[in-house]
From TrEMBL:
<keyword id="KW-0547">Nucleotide-binding</keyword>
<dbReference type="GO" id="GO:0004674">
    <property type="term" value="F:protein serine/threonine kinase activity"/>
</dbReference>
<dbReference type="GO" id="GO:0005524">
    <property type="term" value="F:ATP binding"/>
</dbReference>
<protein>
    <recommendedName>
        <fullName>Leucine-rich repeat-containing N-terminal plant-type domain-containing protein</fullName>
    </recommendedName>
</protein>
<keyword id="KW-0325">Glycoprotein</keyword>
<dbReference type="Pfam" id="PF13855">
    <property type="entry name" value="LRR_8"/>
</dbReference>
<keyword id="KW-0067">ATP-binding</keyword>
<keyword id="KW-0675">Receptor</keyword>
<keyword id="KW-1133">Transmembrane helix</keyword>
<dbReference type="GO" id="GO:0016020">
    <property type="term" value="C:membrane"/>
</dbReference>
<keyword id="KW-0732">Signal</keyword>
<dbReference type="Pfam" id="PF00560">
    <property type="entry name" value="LRR_1"/>
</dbReference>
<keyword id="KW-0677">Repeat</keyword>
<keyword id="KW-0472">Membrane</keyword>
<feature type="domain" description="Leucine-rich repeat-containing N-terminal plant-type">
    <location>
        <begin position="40"/>
        <end position="78"/>
    </location>
</feature>
<feature type="signal peptide">
    <location>
        <begin position="1"/>
        <end position="31"/>
    </location>
</feature>
<dbReference type="InterPro" id="IPR003591">
    <property type="entry name" value="Leu-rich_rpt_typical-subtyp"/>
</dbReference>
Length: 603
């Protein structure tokens, strides 16, 4: 009896015990089920990502349930936690579509690289659910919108690469809260606003690429205190003010680019003293003033130096020539030279064997260019000294620079003849020496320049017939001989160059005779100028074969007869000048093609 009472007592004390046991069992089953589900969770989420892509061929075609998730291309799994994805690298796979929010469920993910695809839409906020994420690369896609604020939850981030998209908004100030952040690439987007001061807190920061946005304001001084910072590219924005002095003491700095901004001020006299690792200094297209410091020469690792399109004055320090850059541009400043000493930097540069681009054009450099220019690097491809005040003769030894593809002497005060040796530069594609005081014949050796695309000889005192060897220039697209003293008939060898597609200018010389029928070969030409000569005869019907012509100048000659009716078939022709000839009006043709009457004068 006592036993029965005891059992009743127990039953009354624990009336819900069976239900609790049942709940416990169900919980165990549920946990086991969840564990089993988790083993496939990452696989399911990746298949959802695949389904969101418009193009599922290529690398994604191997993503299916018949193979192990960890063997899928582009997928890397954890060694410790099997079937958990730690890295997803689908760079350059031709993917298009949107990034599905399910990507945020790959909570073991440390590396996410979807760069160089055609992904659209916004960056999903679910990326902020990836607590282990260290490297995020979504660069070179078609993403738009602002950077999701949820990303600030990814506190372990070391690199953020979002460049080359259509992203907008401001650079988040909370970027400064990532203690491990080393790399920020936001270039080629539509970001606005300023650089947050908080980025100065990122003691591990090594790379900042913010070029080609719409950023403004000043460069934060705190960035110059980051001892690990090596690469800074702020080009093509709207930054103003001066470069913080702290930047000139950054011994870690390798690249500093601020091209195309609104920066001003003078460079410090000790600029290169504390920049032993500097390789790229790009200051072009700003408003810098003052002289170029000789101390730049202390940055002996300089590979690219660009101070173009500023307001620098004074002479180029000789010490600059002791650098050995690949790229050196002083284009469009107010630099001067009058004496041989002022050109000494060129002589020093002859010791540099890797100089490839050397641009001095559009300054106030005078005096004579030293003959040592002919001893510059055999690697030199581009030499621009145009738009200065240089006098004297073109150095005969220029032919030593056999690697030149572009040579520009235009708009100076060069005298004498064009050296025959110039024909030895058989890699030339662009050759310009217009607007000088050169005399004599054009050397027949120009015909050796068979890769030449553009030839500018206008506004000199050249004389005689054009060399027949010019017929060899089968790649030529532009040729200008304007305002010289060339004589003889129009050069058939030029009119046979069907490659001429932009301009042929023979105007204001002393050419005589008719327009040769070979003019019909110029089917690609847009601009034909033969005004201001002593040409005669009728305008040939063959000229109507030049269907690409936009502008045809035949004025100030002695053409006679009537305008050929075939000219009216030149549908692209906008400008036709025929005045100061003895052409005869044909009223019926003019009435049929009224545009001719409006475009020309018969007087």
């Amino acid at each position: 009896m006592a036993s029965v009472t005891s059992r009743k007592s127990m039953s009354s004390m624990f009336p819900a015990l069976p239900l609790l046991l049942l709940a416990y069992v169900l919980q165990l089953v549920s946990c086991a089920s969840a564990t089993m589900s988790n083993n496939k969770t990452d696989e399911d989420f990746l298949l959802e990502f695949k389904a969101s892509m418009s193009q599922q061929q290529g690398i994604l075609s191997a993503w299916n349930t018949s193979s192990d998730l960890c063997h899928w291309p582009g997928v890397r799994c954890s060694r410790k936690h099997k079937d958990r994805v730690t890295a997803l690298n689908l760079s350059s796979q031709g993917l298009s579509g949107t990034i599905t929010p399910s990507i945020g469920n790959l909570t073991f993910l440390r590396i996410l690289d979807l760069s160089s695809n055609k992904l659209q839409g916004e960056i999903p906020s679910s990326i902020g659910n990836l607590p282990r994420l260290q490297h995020l690369n979504l660069s070179n896609n078609l993403l738009h919108g602002e950077i999701t604020t949820q990303l600030k939850n990814c506190s372990l981030l070391e690199s953020i690469k979002l460049d080359s998209n259509w992203l907008t908004g401001e650079i988040p100030s909370w970027f400064g809260g990532f203690p491990n952040l080393k790399t920020i690439h936001l270039a080629k987007n539509n970001f606005t606003g300023i650089i947050p001061q908080s980025l100065g807190n990122l003691s591990s920061l090594q790379e900042i690429f913010f070029a080609r946005n719409h950023l403004e304001g000043t460069i934060p001084e705190g960035l110059g205190d980051l001892n690990s910072l090596m690469y800074v590219d702020l080009g093509e924005n709207h930054f103003s003010g001066t470069i913080p002095k702290t930047f000139y003491n950054m011994s870690s700095l390798i690249e500093f680019r601020v091209t195309m901004n609104e920066l001003h001020g003078m460079l410090p006299h000790d600029l290169g003293v504390h920049l032993p690792n500097l390789q790229y200094l790009r200051l072009g297209m700003n408003h810098f003033t003052g002289s170029l410091p000789a101390s730049v020469a202390n940055a002996t690792k300089i590979y690219s130096l660009d101070i173009s399109f500023n307001n620098f004055t004074g002479s180029v320090p000789p010490e600059i020539g002791k650098l050995c850059p690949d790229f050196l541009s002083f284009d469009t400043n107010q630099l001067t030279a009058t004496t041989a000493q002022d050109w000494k930097f060129v002589t020093f540069l002859t010791n540099c064997t890797r100089l490839r681009i050397f641009d001095l054009q559009d300054n106030s450099l005078g005096g004579m260019v030293p003959s040592s220019v002919a001893n510059l690097s055999a690697q030199l491809q581009i030499l621009f000294v145009g738009y200065n005040e240089i006098s004297g003769k073109i150095p005969f030894g220029i032919s030593n620079l056999a690697g030149l593809t572009q040579l520009q002497f235009s708009n100076n005060r060069f005298t004498g003849v064009l050296p025959d040796s110039i024909g030895m530069l058989n890699s030339l594609q662009v050759l310009g020496f217009s607007n000088n005081k050169l005399t004599g014949l054009l050397p027949s050796s120009l015909g050796n320049l068979t890769q030449l695309l553009r030839l500018y000889t206008d506004n000199n005192y050249f004389e005689g017939p054009l060399p027949t060897s010019l017929r060899n220039l089968q790649e030529l697209t532009v040729a200008t001989f304007r305002h010289n003293k060339f004589t003889g008939s129009l050069p058939i060898q030029i009119f046979n160059l069907s490659s001429l597609s932009f301009a042929l200018d023979l105007s204001y010389n002393y050419f005589v005779g008719p327009i040769p029928p070979e003019v019909s070969s110029l089917t690609k030409l847009a601009y034909l100028y033969i005004a201001g000569n002593n040409l005669s005869g009728s305008i040939p019907d063959a000229i109507s074969n030049c269907q690409s012509l936009i502008d045809l100048r035949l004025d100030i000659n002695s053409f006679n007869g009537s305008i050929p009716p075939s000219i009216s078939k030149m549908k692209g022709l906008i400008i036709l000048t025929l005045y100061n000839n003895t052409l005869r009006r044909n009223s019926s043709r003019v009435r049929s093609h009224g545009w001719i009457e409006r475009a020309v004068s018969f007087t």
